[in-house]
């Protein structure tokens, strides 16, 4: 799973929060406090598309972008990648379990049955 830079993460946050596909201009407007040029937003969207994190469809002259997977799917994939890189997965899982708040431990126990 490719890692995300700070601006890529901000763009993905906008796309994940959207109810549908967005144009580059709509992404730019959502990030208005950053004062980004449209070309910058298009460059970031292109990178995200090459990383297979967003898909692009054409609608007239505009392209619309949407995430390929949900934020939760993305984070789960990052967690799997991290576990796959650990020589002792059990130790990593134990450390992770011990590091999360009790209510999240309870939720994890419930999920595991």
TrEMBL record:
GO molecular function: DNA binding
Lineage: superkingdom: Bacteria
Signal sequence, start to end: none
Gene Ontology biological-process entries: negative regulation of DNA-templated transcription
Keywords per UniProt: DNA-binding, Transcription, Transcription regulation
InterPro entries attached to this UniProt entry: BlaI_family, WH-like_DNA-bd_sf, WH_DNA-bd_sf
Family recorded in the similarity comment: Belongs to the BlaI transcriptional regulatory family.
Protein name according to UniProt: BlaI/MecI/CopY family transcriptional regulator
Native source organism of the sequence: Pseudonocardia bannensis
